[in-house]
Amino acid sequence: MKEIRRPDNMERITNAELAQSFIDEQIALVKEQVGDKKVLLALSGGVDSSVVAALLIKAIGNQLTCVHVNHGLLRKGEPEQVIEVFRNQMNANLIYVDATDRFLDKLAGVTDPEQKRKIIGGEFIDVFAEEARKLNDIEFLAQGTIWPDILESEKGIKAHHNAGGLPDDMNFELVEPIKILFKDEVRQVGKQLGLPDSMVYRQPFPGPGLGVRCPGAITRERLTAVRESDAILREEFAKSGLADKVWQYFTIVPDFKSTGIKNDERTYDWAVVIRAVNTKDAMTATVENIPFDLMQTLVARITTEVKGVNRVLYDFTPKPSATIEWE
Ligand code: XMP
Question: Is the pLDDT at 180 greater than 70, yes or no?
Answer without folding.
Answer: yes
